[in-house]
Design a protein that fits this description.
The protein has a single domain, classed as Porin (Beta Barrel). Helix content is about 20%, strand content about 50%. An eight-stranded antiparallel barrel has the order 1-2-3-4-5-6-7-8. The radius of gyration is 41 Å and the shape is elongated.
């Protein structure tokens, strides 16, 4: 019996050693595997491009790959204000009723996005009447026309770049045309006019005519942003305006046509 106990005790001690040896081997293998996994991950990071999430210079959507551009902030980015002036040329048969003059444009509106806006605009055109027409209709040497329009015009940017936009605009509204026939007169030049040897030249209205009608307009233009960090833009545009004016021998004539060319600032 004692012999059996000794054999079992020796076997148990041996199994402890074997278990200890196996535990050491498994620990060493685990450590090697951990080192290997870490090493593989390190190698993968070195062999492949960096993750764009942590390296924005490699991302296509990164701001570092684009030029600076004003994007606006708050509700104010939807507000549009504009003003400008330029030259107005009569078109078609309207050339018989008016000479080339000048115009003023004022407006404001709402910007839906970078491409579409809706503008309410007031355009004033001032032109002179051909002398032959003034003599024929009112026996006066001079005349002038004031034509203003109040329109609601959608504007669409078909070209949209960092600082340059190309757009089309068009719509319609209400217009009024007023024609004055004048004669020159001499008037006093100030309070002490009798100290002067003569007077100053002026004009007096002797007749006038006016019409009210609807109108349509369409145009094309370009905008250039002064600074990539600001929203203000300089614009140049040309429009065609058609007034549904009545048939008459007086200005502005039947279905008057105007071509205002305007330079201005839009914010």
């Amino acid at each position: 019996m004692n012999r059996v106990h000794q054999v079992l005790r020796s076997t148990f001690k041996g199994s402890k050693c074997v278990a200890l040896a196996c535990g050491l081997l498994l620990a060493a293998a685990g450590q090697a595997q951990t080192y290997s996994s870490s090493n593989v991950s390190y190698n993968l990071q070195n062999n492949y491009p960096p993750n764009p999430q942590y390296n924005p210079q490699y991302s296509n959507s990164s701001p570092y790959n684009h030029k600076p551009r004003y994007t606006g902030e708050g509700w104010g980015k939807h507000l549009v204000l504009e003003g400008g002036g330029g030259v107005t040329v009569p078109g078609g048969s309207t050339q018989n009723f008016a000479n080339t003059g000048w115009n003023v444009l004022l407006g404001g509106g709402f910007k839906f996005n970078d491409r579409l806006s809706l503008l309410a605009e007031w355009n004033f055109n001032r032109m002179t009447v051909p002398q032959s027409l003034a003599y024929l209709n009112a026996q006066t040497p001079y005349g002038n026309e004031h034509i203003w329009t109040a329109d609601l015009n959608p504007k669409f940017n078909f070209i949209h770049r960092d600082r340059l936009d190309g757009y089309v605009i068009g719509g319609g509204g209400f217009s009024r045309a007023l024609t004055n026939f004048t004669v020159p007169v001499y008037v006093p030049c100030g309070y002490y006019y009798y100290y002067y040897g003569g007077g100053c030249s002026g004009s007096v209205n002797v007749a006038h005519t006016s019409t009210n009608q609807g109108n349509i307009d369409v145009g094309v233009g370009g905008e250039w942003r002064i600074s990539p960090y600001e929203r203000g833009k300089i614009f140049l545009e040309a429009r065609y305006e058609k007034l549904f004016s009545p048939k008459s021998v007086l200005p502005p004539g039947h279905d008057a046509n105007l071509i205002p060319v305007t330079v201005g600032y839009r914010w």
